[in-house]
Amino acid sequence: MFDLSSQLASQTISKKIVWAYLTAQRKVSGEITHSDIQRMTVELWATGVRVVLKKAAPTIIEMAKKGLSTIISIWEIGRTIARETIDKSIGLAVTRKSDRIYLVDSRQGGEKHTVAAYPDGISCSCMKFKCLSNRISNEAPKLRSAIARAEVPGTQDAIALSEQYDTSTRRIVETDHIYCHHILACIREIFGSSSIQDYLFSYSKVTKKKSTAPLIREYSDAEIAEAQDLFGSQVAKKITPPVWGSLNIPTPKYEEEEF
Ligand SMILES: [Zn+2]
């Protein structure tokens, strides 16, 4: 079992999130009650999130009348957190303060949150974003990956995984970005994007600022195999920047091979 701080746990593997997962799995139904919260324990283990729900009121529990004990995989819980974050982002008004600064309504009304756009990421002033930024990499790095790599619904795209070409090392750098519902509202409303990678592609167009790192996409294994069939095994790696020509970096020699 990992020692997850209560602050991080409440922003990620909260009992409400676990309840949302169990509801989707038809293990429970109805709104979570105070009594459910009291009977439930949630712990982060190496194998996933362990949930124990002691015998519950029959009106609340349909399929788990005798209570339940289960482990939810990190990827499943990451996906659940991502879906909840997307749901919370719907309908939040976003206003532009400057080219790179946006104000996003909070769910409760009142204070707005400030979202700042950068060429290599995007940040928010809210508690959730701060808590995740300060804690998740140290306390639960796998959970960070799972939340970032959850798919945008209906697509294969990860919500918050970016791949950028580092011109100094000539390597692809993968980053699991941290996000909150304000960020998702902002990238959707202002940048027309549903993922952080999409946002990074749109960044310079929308903000009129230059990106620092060229963005690339890797070919899939199937595409490489197909290329190797056609061109031989020297087709080893796979880089396609969307705008090679405009980038001031050496063109890889396999770029000339069209496939
Ligand atoms: Zn936020």
Structure, described:
This protein has 259 residues and is an alpha+beta fold. It folds into 3 domains: 6-72, no CATH class; 87-207, no CATH class; 221-256, no CATH class. It has 9 helices and 9 strands. The protein has helices spanning 6-11, 15-24, 34-39, 74-89, 127-139, 141-149, 181-189, 196-207, 221-231; strands at 40-45, 48-53, 68-72, 94-96, 101-104, 113-118, 121-124, 161-166, 171-176. A hairpin with a 4-residue loop joins strand 8 (161-166) and strand 9 (171-176). Helix 2 (15-24) crosses helix 4 (74-89) and helix 4 crosses helix 6 (141-149). Bound molecules: zinc ion.
SSE topology sketch:
Blueprint (H helix, E strand, L loop, with lengths): L5 H6 L3 H10 L9 H6 E6 L2 E6 L14 E5 L1 H16 L4 E3 L4 E4 L8 E6 L2 E4 L2 H13 L1 H9 L11 E6 L4 E6 L4 H9 L6 H12 L13 H11 L28
Antiparallel strand pairs: 1-2, 2-3, 4-5, 5-6, 6-7, 8-9
The structure holds zinc ion (ZN).
